[in-house]
Design a protein that fits this description.
The protein has one domain (4-115). Helices cover 72% and strands 0% of the residues. It has 7 helices and no strands. InterPro entries: TerB-like.
Length: 117
């Protein structure tokens, strides 16, 4: 069973993936991810800033290698700790800029219909 901290780290990685997947990084999406990070009860060994920086690099590599689903599958167990919050967070980021990019929608649908079921 995943812990709250593992969930927090996975949620942060999911949030970063959601705003970076379409290749268009908008300020409001970045601000929303920062708000999500600020709201996490962080108890990790590494600082939230360090985890966030590492996640940005991991997400960028997963997108470049076309291994987004595999990357998210690696987060599944931790995200299942609170799958409703994970899905709500993904949806919130997807809708934050007033338009749903196709890649964001596909990723959200994958989460909702296949990964977090």
């Amino acid at each position: 069973m995943a812990t709250q901290q593992l969930f927090n780290e996975a949620l942060l990685k999911l949030a970063i993936m959601m705003y970076r997947i379409d290749g268009k990084i908008r300020l409001n999406e970045q601000e929303l991810v920062d708000l999500i990070a600020d709201d996490l009860a962080w108890e990790g060994v590494n600082s939230i800033t360090a985890v966030q920086s590492q996640a940005v690099a991991e997400v960028r590599d997963a997108i470049r290698a076309d291994k987004v689903e595999a990357y998210l599958a690696g987060l599944k167990d931790a995200l299942m700790f609170d799958k409703k919050k994970a899905l709500d967070t993904a949806r919130q980021i997807m809708q934050s800029d007033g338009e749903e990019a196709q890649k964001e929608r596909r990723l959200y649908d994958y989460l909702r219909q296949q990964l977090l079921v």
